[in-house]
From TrEMBL:
InterPro entries: PolX-like_BBD. Pfam families: Pol_BBD. It comes from Lupinus albus. Residues 22-102 form the Retrovirus-related Pol polyprotein from transposon TNT 1-94-like beta-barrel domain. Signal peptide: none annotated. GO terms for molecular function: RNA-directed DNA polymerase activity. Keywords: Nucleotidyltransferase, RNA-directed DNA polymerase, Transferase. This is Putative RNA-directed DNA polymerase. PANTHER family: OS08G0421700 PROTEIN (PTHR47592:SF27), PBF68 PROTEIN (PTHR47592).
Amino acid sequence: MVEDPLVAVLTEVTMIGGSDGWWVDTGASRHVCYDRAMFKTYTNADNKKVLLGDSHTTTVAETGDVELKFTYGMTLILKGVMHTTEMRNNLVPGILLNKTGFT
């Protein structure tokens, strides 16, 4: 699966618990995380690929759910997050935030 190549970073998300490097990205179409330890669930990605901002593709190792804890006490669960180690920052597409759940 190759995603749209447009990348535009909007803002950094402030969180706690060692979850540095998360960015709300208006050009991304899927959640992407480079840190395997952040995944609450983890399943086979079936050889999916993702197109990165520098115009090359990388293999998605697995997909799963990631729980983010914010400094103001809320928790956000991102569903269907793609895991790839070739990212330096994790991406949260602004358009997909309505498909997640705060607790």
